[in-house]
Amino acid sequence: MFARTGTRPHWTKRAKWTLETAESLLNITKSVFTDSVLNDVKYYVAITVAGYNYMWLHKRSQNKSLLGFRMVQSLQDEIASLLDAHNITYVRKPKKFLITVDKEMIEKNREVFTAIATASSSASSTCAFAARDRSPNSRSRSRA
After folding, report:
1. Quick check: 124 pLDDT over 60?
2. Reported confidence tier of residue 140, pLDDT bands at 50, 70, 90
3. Per-residue pLDDT for 3 more than 70?
4. Its pTM surpasses 0.85
5. Is 21 left (phi over 0), alpha (psi -120 to 50) or beta?
6. Separation of alpha carbons 52 and 34, rounded Å
7. Contact (Cβ atoms closer than 8 angstroms) between residue 120 and residue 130
8. Helical pair 8-29 and 110-126, crossing angle rounded to 10 deg
9. Where are the domains of the chain?
10. Does domain 2-126 have CATH number 1.10.10?
11. 10: alpha, beta or left? (left if phi > 0; alpha if psi -120 to 50)
């Protein structure tokens, strides 16, 4: 389930709620990201497929986490409409979305997160947006 287990005790102690939220999101998206694992590193926990981060969570206060995921430009309006229709507050960046989440919110909106995973997965099969970098914070990206 974890790509690297060395930091799992760190996450259990530091922000157990982020780890639980990531595990819940992994279970919900497992049907879309078939070979997905949790990649727990020092500052975030990511859902990783074939070594590439598709979704990642950063610890926040009050048992919340910041979920981030990349989305190709052509699907951003569709994802924004889906989030708006379910009253989910988000921040839209040029190539990604950020959402403050907790485990309960992920489970309550499982169909939304499955749809996001499906859009992200189908977009990555037609273009290499997910393969451009392995880290959500990377500044350098290869040009396709």
Report:
1. yes
2. very low
3. no
4. no
5. alpha
6. 13
7. yes
8. 90
9. 2-126
10. no
11. alpha
